[in-house]
Amino acid sequence: MNSTVxxxxxxxxxxxxxxxxxxxxxxxxxxxxxVRVAAVISxxxxxxxxxxxxxxxxxxxxxxxxxxxxxxxxxxxxxxxxDGYAPDxxxxxxxxxxxxxxxxxxxxxxxxxxxxxxxxxxPGLHTHQRALDEGVRIHGCTVHFVTPALDHGPVVxxxxxxxxxxxxEATLAARVLAQEHVVYPLAVRWFAEGRLxxxxxxxxVDAERPIQAALIAP
Length: 218
Ligand code: GRF
Description:
Elements: H1 3-6, E1 9-14, H2 19-30, E2 36-42, H3 48-55, E3 60-62, H4 71-83, E4 89-92, H5 101-106, E5 111-115, H6 127-134, E6 138-145, E7 155-162, H7 169-192, E8 196-199, E9 202-205
Parallel strand pairs: 1-2, 1-4, 2-3, 4-5
Antiparallel strand pairs: 5-6, 6-7, 8-9
5-O-phosphono-beta-D-ribofuranosylamine binds next to helix 2, strand 5 and helix 7.
C-alpha cells in the first residue's frame, strides 16, 4: 500500500448501534482497510456507536436533528460538520435520516450507504420482515452510491443469503448483518484504492463487475 492510498479519509455517519461502523474500524485496525477514519458523526447523542468510536480514539461529533427547525437546516449543519473533516468519502452506516437532494448532490460520487436488502427489492424499513412476508428464498444486503431517491443508486456490491425454513425476523437479520460486515469494508477498500468507476450508471471495480458469489452464506 502506498501513502496516497493510506491517506483516503472517511467520515462515518451513524444513528444507533454502529455495528457496521465497528466492522469498518476493525478492518482498519487489522490493516485490511487503507483509510483514515477522520470522524464518526451521529444525529443522536445517545447512539451506542459513539462511545465505542471514542474509546478507540476516533474523533466523534453529534449534530442533533432535534435542534434544527427542518431538514434543510439540519442537513446544512451536518454538511458543515462533515466538511470540517474534509473527508474523501462519507459513509452512511445505519444513519436513519432521509437526506435532502442538495446534501446528496454535494457528496455525489463520495457518499455510500448500506441497505439490508437486495435492492431494488425492499427499500425503506422492516426489510427482513417484508422479505419473510413475501416468501422470498434469497435475501441480502446492498452497498450503493447514494442518489436523492431513498435507498437507490449505483450498486457497488451485494451479498446474498438464503432465507431458511424457520427463520424469523431476528435470525434473518443476523444472517444478513454478518454479510453487511463483510461487504461494507470491501466496498470502502475498493473506493480507497481508487478502483471504483461509474459508467452508464453501473459501478465497475477496475474494469470488472465482480460477483460476490462466495458470500452466499450456508
Ligand atoms: C444495518 O442493517 C444497515 O444495513 C441499516 O441499518 C442497520 C444499521 O446497523 N442501514 P448498525 O448500526 O450498523 O449496527
